[in-house]
Write a structure and sequence with these properties.
single chain; 335 residues; alpha+beta; three-stranded mixed β-sheet; two-stranded antiparallel ribbon; 7 helices; 13 strands; flat
Length: 335
């Protein structure tokens, strides 16, 4: 995800029409791959392997090593097993979105979303893959096992690309090529408009004065640490300076989406729209929606929604239930 000033919602790539889920689309930079065959939505069990390692304790005559069990997952089973693990751990998330859990539906949806990440397994690490399955369970249980978040788990990224990942500044083809960093998110940066040669960069926590990239701006060509300004509700990315700056208060001048919540930009001024007349949710501002031609608070978890931007915060309007839902209930569940 390029560190830019976001609009009313974040967004993500999904195997369904973009606007049917939400205008918040999570941009998965460089996650591209292929699938392994499954039967009836059930993946094969992980395979255990045994390796011989030198023993540090005295051995009997004629022995120099002892067998140590080490779990290792074969590459042709990893994708199916990862899909199944996420689905099983996410099963409890469906009810919160007014949906039900169906293993076949979940496995199919999850499998399609992971296709791109599995295109290149030339650096595959089976031991890291087995650890990845354990690491992903808490994330899935919390209903947030989106691809980008899973690939921020060190074992999952190493499993797909191996331990020899690229340092910040190195040429890259996709975000999976870049080594994880402690204080930020490593990704393959292709410029504010996505038309430049990729280089490994770091998305850093938001702070006033930090560098950022706005699609209408021109950040320095050597900028490799970019702040996601919008992660702080009080900040925005200034396209003129390519830095995080405070959002514009109610009454201030605006051009697009520079206004501090809950205001929105109308007629080049930041206006508080709660309770005001409207024709669409786009006119209302953050965490508001247009109902009966009036801007009212957005829907909370489990509440009815019409689509698009009707729900508050990071919730999505699930197309199958028309209820404000978490990511898992939106993407992996059915009616």
């Amino acid at each position: 995800m390029v560190a830019i000033a976001s609009g009313r919602r974040r967004a993500y790539a999904a195997p369904m029409p973009l606007r049917s889920v939400s205008s918040r689309v999570l941009v998965l930079v460089g996650l591209v791959g292929c699938a392994s065959p499954q039967t009836d939505g059930v993946a094969p069990e992980p395979e255990d392997s045994t390796t011989m390692v030198p023993s540090s304790s005295p051995q009997r005559a004629g022995t120099g090593s002892v067998p140590v069990a080490r779990k290792e997952l074969q590459s042709d089973a990893f994708k199916a097993e990862l899909t199944r693990t996420i689905c099983e751990a996410s099963a409890g998330c469906c009810a919160s979105g007014g949906a039900s859990y169906n293993p076949e539906v979940c496995n199919k949806a999850n499998d399609e979303m992971w296709n791109n990440a599995f295109k290149d397994l030339s650096g595959y690490d089976g031991v890291a893959a087995a650890r990845c399955l354990e690491a992903v369970k808490p994330l899935a249980t919390s209903c947030n096992a989106e691809i980008q978040k899973v690939l921020e788990l060190a074992d999952c990224r190493v499993a797909l690309r191996g331990p020899k990942l690229l340092a910040t500044g190195a040429a890259c083809k996709g975000s999976l090529d870049c080594a994880l960093v402690k204080n930020g998110r490593a990704f393959c940066w292709t410029g504010p408009k996505g038309d430049q040669a990729g280089r490994c960069a770091v998305e850093t926590p938001p702070a006033a004065g930090k560098g950022c990239a706005h699609p209408q701006g021109a950040p320095p060509s050597d900028l490799l640490e970019l702040s996601k300004c919008s992660a702080d509700a009080s900040l925005r990315c200034d396209p003129k300076t390519s830095q995080c700056v405070p959002k514009v208060p109610v009454g201030g001048e605006c051009a697009f989406d520079e206004c501090a919540a809950p205001a929105t930009c109308r007629d080049k001024r930041c206006k508080a729209m709660s309770g005001k007349a409207c024709k669409s949710t786009n006119e209302c501002g953050y965490d508001l929606r247009c109902v009966a031609e009036k801007c009212v608070p957005g829907g909370k978890l489990g509440e009815a929604c019409a689509g698009g931007m009707d729900c508050v915060g990071d919730l999505f309007c699930a197309p199958h239930s028309k209820k404000c839902s978490n990511w898992a209930a939106t993407m992996l569940c059915t009616k």
